[in-house]
Amino acid sequence: MADAPTYSEAVMHPSRALHISLWIVQGLLFLLFGMAGVLKSTQPIAALAQNMGWPGDVPAALVRFIGISELAGALGLVLPTATRIKPWLTPLAAAGIVLIMLFAAVFHVSRAEPQFVPINILFAALAGFVAWGRWRKAPIPPRH
Predict the structure, then answer these.
(1) For residue 30, how many other CB atoms are within 10 A of its CB?
(2) Confidence (pTM)
(3) Residue among 1, 28, 5 nearest 15 (CA)
(4) Which residues, other chains included, contact 16 with Cβ-Cβ below 8 Å and sequence gap of 6+?
């Protein structure tokens, strides 16, 4: 009967289930933030305002900045770990998405739109899971 792995062994060799879970969440967030980022950075502000409301109430440059930030975060969630080129960027991208979602929650509260806060918190928690997982528990080693 094999002994249970020690804490240091568990950190050095994370479970396959954790890696799979992280990849699933990374892929989901990549799709969500990639699509949102493309829309906010390319669609006319009037069309965005018609569908979302808030883009018509803030400067267009802010909408574009948010879109580009979301797109950069989406790419950062997947590309560094998939290519194993500077994979330490993935947890940083995930942390950036946590910040975007926390700012979004504060923004929606300030606009008396509390119905959007739970989804902001959910996405922040998922991105936080990726940041924690890829930084501490299941980092991807760089390519040599």
Answers:
(1) 19
(2) 0.87
(3) 5
(4) none
In a domain, 144, yes or no: no
Beta carbons of 97 and 106 less than 8 angstroms apart: no
Closest CA to 96 of 119, 73, 125, 115: 73
Contact status, residue 134 vs residue 94, Cβ threshold 8 Å: yes
User: Domain span at residue 90?
Assistant: 15-137
Does residue 2 fall inside a structural domain? no
86: left (phi over 0), alpha (psi -120 to 50) or beta: left
- Give the amino acid at 30: F
Nearest Cα neighbor of 122 from 36, 16, 27, 29 is 29
In a domain, 73, yes or no: yes
Contacts of residue 103, Cβ cutoff 8 Å, sequence gap at least 6 = none
Per-residue tens of pLDDT for the chain, all 144 residues: 555 545 455 456 678 999 999 999 999 999 999 999 999 999 999 999 999 999 999 999 999 999 999 999 999 999 999 999 999 999 999 999 999 999 999 999 999 999 999 999 999 999 999 999 999 999 999 998
> What domain count does the chain have?
1
Q: Does residue 7 belong to any structural domain of this protein?
A: no
